């Protein structure tokens, strides 16, 4: 049994989506993959996280107790008594928790080996945790012959995501589950039939020093009650309309405005701002895609839009560029 789920890129609406504003995002053809095979011991469950170089045995008799401890720590986070990183301190805790919320998993998975691999860079802004959890849950569902609907997968993945990132809007789980290009607001998902042209690229500016959870908490403390989120909503709607009209000038204008809003909330490192300034000077537009960074010089993934009149060579700007492509299918599993 094997399952996979795609990465994601946010075109507009990161951070603001947590405050009920709309977001535009698409699934990327980069995948987290989970396989379930027979293990060596019929009485234990082996978990291999190859990208984290972690192998461990999960105690299936203590799943309920483990879930309770995680929920207690999360409540302390909500009460500002604990940092979000302390809610799931171990590398396998996110998947241990995902297993604990599945009532029938303990008996059915005893004697199995679960192996998780991912082509999605951790901390890059591409939804690594949501993709790995969605693939993990899809694999368990397939193994139990209890397939999940997209809505069920989104609900369960979001439940796990909140313990990793603090407060999950449900955007990342929705993209991972459904694929395609989506408009998302307060749990309502609309699939857009827009096809992106060949002017879009993604650039990796490096893994941020701070986690997504700590970044979103930092922003909430400073801007949680701010009116700036309405400005984010307006630019997201503006970009959606521009994409539907294939209006390159308006796409550039929308992305530039979005970038300035992200700078105002303090999540775009100076080095990334300098890179984006160069893009703009040559006629293009760019913005971070994801939580960004509140310290250091790496900001995760940057989306770049280069209209036909824009003369830019990737190599001249010091980053590795990849053309932005889309996954249309979302999470899938197969025997």
Summarize the structure.
The protein is of the alpha+beta class and 335 residues long. The protein has 10 helices and 12 strands.
Structure description:
With 335 residues, this protein is α+β, with helices and mostly antiparallel strands. It folds into two domains: 2-192, Ribosomal Protein S5, domain 2 (2-Layer Sandwich); 200-323, GHMP kinase, C-terminal domain (Alpha-Beta Plaits), CATH 3.30.70.890. 38% of the residues lie in helices and 22% in strands. The protein has ten helices and twelve strands. Strands 1, 2, 3, 4, 5, 6, 7 and 12 form an eight-stranded mixed sheet that branches. A four-stranded antiparallel sheet has the order 9-10-8-11. Helix 1 packs across helix 2. The longest helix has 18 residues, at 228-245. It starts with a strand and ends with a strand. The model has no long low-confidence stretch (mean pLDDT 91).
Task: Summarize the helices and strands and which ones pair or pack.
Layout lengths: L1 E11 L10 E16 L6 E5 L4 E5 L4 H16 L14 H8 L4 H5 L2 E7 L9 H16 L6 H16 L5 H8 L2 E5 L2 E5 L7 E5 L7 H12 L4 H18 L2 H17 L5 H12 L3 E4 L12 E5 L15 E3 L8 E3 L1
Helix pairs in contact: 1-2, 2-4, 2-5, 4-5, 5-6, 8-9
Q: Note the quaternary state here.
A: single chain
Q: CATH first level of the largest domain: which class?
A: Alpha Beta
Q: Tell me the span between the first and last alpha carbons.
A: 4 Å
What does the radius of gyration come to?
20 Å
Examine the coordinates and then state which fold CATH places here, giving the name of the CATH topology of the largest domain. Answer: Ribosomal Protein S5, domain 2
What is the ordering of alpha helices and beta strands? EEEEHHHEHHHEEEHHHHEEEE
Stretches where pLDDT is under 50 for at least 5 consecutive residues are none
Helix segment tally = 10
CATH architecture of the largest domain: 2-Layer Sandwich
Proportion in helices:
25-40%
What general form does the structure show? globular
Instruction: Output the structural class.
Output: alpha+beta
The major beta sheet can be summarized as: 8 strands, mixed
- The tally of strands reads 12
